[in-house]
Design a protein that fits this description.
Elements lengths: L3 E7 L7 H5 L6 E4 L4 E6 L2 E7 L5 H11 L3 E6 L10 H19 L6 E5 L6 H14 L3 E5 L10 H13 L3 E4 L14 H20 L2 H4 L6 E3 L6 H14 L1 H4 L14 E3 L5 H11 L4 E2 L15 H4 L6 H15 L4
Parallel strand pairs: 1-5, 5-6, 6-7, 7-8, 8-9, 9-10, 10-11
Antiparallel strand pairs: 2-3, 3-4
Length: 331
């Protein structure tokens, strides 16, 4: 079966010295341990170890060949969003990253595609940059699930999503800057607990605020990591909507009725979870996403879908490639 992996990350081998350029600290940098291993550093501390698969196109293509991946869509690692900085600084980083992404794809433009990133703290600048990138060859945009204390129902963010619909830019929503880190100092709990909750918060922000009522149905929007905890808890949300007026005050329809307005990826790591996802979202709303090349991603990309014991081949084909081809308008 054809495989299109629509959720993978990159991190450049080097990052410009934005700390010196803008006279402030906290910018991610890269320190290489050897040719294949490096650390992302923030203020002299290790944020995350990474491997050359993050920056080496030949390594990525070799892995794709080994796993029989036809096409992979790359996007920046979310620690690079930098929404808390002055817009001109975040824009400078975004422009550089977006050009780097296209350069990484250049050796195999038929197999590698890129999502851009934009300075979401300034909606006008974000709209301008996503338009530039779509004209230059990006196939969509990745944004974080919140900007500071602003969730996706913020009017500025809704305006940006409307602009994406207008120019035909698909949107991947990726959780980042997770809630309550002070309560989860160990065991990668922010990634294991807060990250799924952040995604559910994002989806419910659009549904319960009535934002989907104001956004055009042409908007293509996808939430990473199988929609986080949302698919498992939609029954609880519907129950709350039926019985509490404060839940439905801005949401005119049953929350589950909006599930045809967005997509999720397949990164759920267990056949029962994938079965629930198909039953909840519908096979036409799920796309193969691996989170490559990170340890929390699917290590054998597509294996969960391909080996699922009860999902038929037609549904598998849609999840593995067909839905993404339509979502991103790929040949």
């Amino acid at each position: 079966m054809k495989l299109i992996d629509m959720h993978s990350h990159f991190f450049p081998a080097t990052v410009p010295d934005f700390a010196s350029r803008f006279a402030n600290n906290g910018w991610p940098t890269v320190v290489h341990r050897n040719a294949e291993q490096a650390d992302i550093m923030i203020d002299g501390k290790v944020f995350r170890p990474i491997t050359h698969a993050c920056w080496d196109t030949s390594k990525r293509l070799a892995d794709m060949d080994l796993l029989e991946i036809d096409t992979q869509i790359i996007c920046a690692t979310p620690v690079l969003f930098a929404y808390h900085r002055p817009v001109e600084q975040t824009l400078a980083l975004a422009e550089w990253l977006n050009d780097q992404a296209l350069e990484m794809c250049q050796p195999a433009p038929g197999r590698l595609k890129a999502l851009c990133q934009v300075p979401m703290q300034d909606i006008d600048a974000a709209c301008k940059e996503v338009s530039r990138c779509m004209e230059n060859g990006h196939v969509g945009v990745q944004i974080g699930n919140h900007v500071g204390l602003k969730n996706l129902d913020d009017e500025g963010i809704v305006s940006f999503l409307h602009h994406c619909a207008d120019i035909g830019a698909p949107v991947l929503i990726h959780p980042w800057d997770m809630m309550a880190p002070e309560r989860m100092p160990n065991y990668m709990l922010p990634w294991l607990v807060a990250m799924p909750a952040e995604t559910q918060l994002s989806i419910l922000s659009l549904i319960l605020s009535g934002a989907f009522e104001r956004l055009p149905e042409s908007l293509k929007i996808c939430f990473a990591h199988g929609g986080g905890s949302f698919p498992y808890l939609i029954g609880r949300v519907d129950n709350a909507w039926r019985h509490r007026d404060i839940v439905r005050q801005d949401c005119p329809n049953l929350p589950s009725s909006y599930m045809d307005r967005f997509y999720v990826d397949s990164a759920v790591f267990h056949p029962d979870a994938l079965d629930l996802l198909v039953k909840t979202m519908g096979a036409e709303r799920i796309m193969l996403g691996s989170d490559y090349p990170f340890p929390l991603g699917e290590q054998v990309i597509g294996e969960l879908v391909k080996t699922h014991p009860t999902i038929n081949d037609s549904v598998k084909s849609r999840i593995l490639a067909g839905n993404a081809a339509e979502f991103f308008s790929l040949d």
